[in-house]
Each structure stands twice: as C-alpha cells, then as structure tokens.
Amino acid sequence: MMQHLLVSERSGARQLRLCCRLGTACSCTHLQPTAHLLHAAPQVLFRCNGSAVLLTNRSCHAARAKYTIQHIVRTNLASDDTAYNCVVQTEDAERHVGVRLNKDLIKVGARALRDNMTALGPKVLPYSEQAKYAASLAVRKAAKLQPALAKHLPARWLQPYTPDFRKAFDYYCIHTGGRGIIDGLEKEMQLSRQQVEPSRASLYRFGNTSSTSVWYELAFIESQCGLAAGQKVWQLAFGSGFKFNSAVLVARRGIKDGSHAAWDGFDGEVMWKELDELEAAAAAGRAAKAAAAAAAGGGGAAGGGVAAAGGHGADTPRTS
Predict the structure, then answer these.
(1) Do the beta carbons of residue 227 and residue 233 sit within 8 Å?
(2) Which of 177, 178, 195 is nearest to 186 (CA)?
(3) Pick from 187, 208, 209, 231: which is nearest to 66 by CA?
(4) What is the pLDDT of residues 115-158, one digit of tens each?
(5) How far apart are CA 68 and CA 61, in angstroms?
(6) Which range among 51-60, 108-117, 158-167, 295-304 shows the weakest confidence by mean pLDDT?
(7) How far is Cα 239 from Cα 25, in angstroms, rounded to an integer?
(8) CA-to-CA distance for 207 and 201, rounded, in angstroms?
(9) CA dist 204 to 41, 150, 171, 196, 216, Å?
(10) Pairing of strands 50-56, 16-22
(11) Cβ neighbours around 9 below 10 Å, total
C-alpha cells in the first residue's frame, strides 16, 4: 500500500497522512515473569491488533473520502501525579520492566471521561441539552451557597445532569478496555443494546485491542449496519498518561462496505445468545452468593440466641 501511495501521490505527499496503530498496549518486550500482580495484569489484558487509516486535506480527494473529521477533543491529565501513575511503565522488585496498573485507574478514567464530555458537549449537543446542563449547574451552585435553599429543592435537581448525547450521534465506538467500561457507558448515557453492539462485538470477537478497537468497531458499523450521508460517529478511546480522546466523524456519503475481512462470517445472534447465557449464569452466581451470605448471617444470629438462652457468659463461642 505504501508503494502505491508513494508512486501515485508523490506530488501531494505533504498532504497525505497514513496513521497506523499496530501491536498491543503492552509491548512483547514487557512479557516478563513477575510475581507482582499489578505488573502481571497488563500481560494478559491485551490482544494483538492493528489498524491503518489514511487521512488527507486535499480537496481533490473529497469525493472519494468516506468521512469528515468534524471534531477532535483530547483530555490529558498527565500533570496530575495520581492520573499519571495509574498506568505507568516501571520496574518490579525483580527489576523486570513492565506496565503497572493501580487501584486509581477506574476513578481517574471516570474523571477523564467527564472532563472530555464537558469539553465536547458544547461542540456537538443541541442548544436544548446545553441549556439543561447549564441550568443544572446553576441550581447546584446556588444550593451549595445557600444550604437552606437545598432543603426545599427536589433531590433530582441536586444531582448532576448528564446531557443526552444520543441527540448528537448515530453510532458509538467505545474503547473495549473491558466489559465494565462498556456497561458503565451504556448505563451512564442510556444507550440501547443496538447502540453498544459494535463495542460488544469487538470485545467478544477480538478481546481487548486497546485504542485500535474503535477502528474495528467502525468497520463493524460499515459492514453490519451501514451509514447514511450526514450520520455521525463518536469514537471514544483512552490510554496511559492518563488521557481520553474523542473523535467525531461525519459520513460524507452512504457507506455499506461488506469487504472488511475482520467481520467475515460474524453472526450477531450467536453472540447475543452466548452473552445472554453468560449474564444469566453470572446473575445466578451472584444470587447464590448473596443467599449463602444471608444464610450465614442468619445462622450466626441464631447461634447467638441459643448461647444467650443457655445462660453462658460472654466468652461462649458462637458458630455460623
């Protein structure tokens, strides 16, 4: 492909950009034996992956282009030590170099997402949603300054308002860092099962492919769903730093491309059936665990009652 580009586009080489994302977020040089769990985790989290995207600002290619990049919003929290250290390359006790994850990752990720959405919102949301967000912010600030006022306001008025991004986008490409990330964004933004299908399918078929996943998901949308001219795609991805990036793509024409080899033979019904069975099994497991815990607690209380009725002192052991 590069040879073709260099031959056919030699005169416009400065205006063409081939953006590649290869490998995994954890380089093979970091596959080291280690007894430290936080160093070992990244070695099994990521799958091999790769993507390439051709970008241009040459107007002569406009008719051939699939998308226009309408917005790019980058959120970088590297100036904060907690954010920087939640995903960092370092040595373990045996001096093996690796990527370390720590317990602050989820909290930092949520903060980065919130900051990114706050910056992106005014660029893409309709005025009605922006007005609701501004009103919610004003009410919460007033309640904070006047505690007496807060007592007379409905509880829901004091909760942060999450704008309805469904009014701004038609498709979503969510970083497949794990099921919990997809579940969280699905719940937070009230997305439908169909709207998170590209992300679930990418995680189901390829595993955690890190930031490359948003391009696997775009290929899914093109091959399995199709886009109409003017429809918008929101790509969300994050990584060490800590950073969170959003890209808004607008389809320049109708797109239905079934040639993506990555999705050959994919059966969505089979995927959903298997995922539903896994969810049912997990729910049953949680219910059984909760029932066992409740039974254990009840047994402890009953044992205490028997001991007290028997007239034994405080030192009598209780069993559950």
Answers:
(1) yes
(2) 195
(3) 231
(4) 999 899 999 999 999 999 888 888 888 888 888 877 778 887 88
(5) 11
(6) 295-304
(7) 9
(8) 9
(9) 19, 46, 18, 12, 12
(10) antiparallel
(11) 15
Residue 278, class by beta-carbon neighbours within 10 Å (0-12 exposed, 13-18 middle, 19+ buried)? exposed
Closest CA to 239 of 217, 213, 211, 214: 211
Lookup: tokens for 64: 């051939």
Tokens of 160: 């942060």
Q: What is the mean predicted confidence (pLDDT) over 157-179?
A: 88
The residue to which tokens 């402890």 are assigned: 300
Do the Cβ atoms of 116 and 110 come closer than 8 Å? no
Using CA atoms, how far apart are residues 193 and 127, in angstroms rounded to an integer? 27
Q: Given its phi and psi angles, is residue 265 left (phi above 0), alpha (psi -120 to 50 degrees) or beta?
A: left
The token pair that represents 74 in the structure block:
């980058």
pLDDT tens digits, one per residue of 257-282:
877 888 998 999 999 999 999 999 99
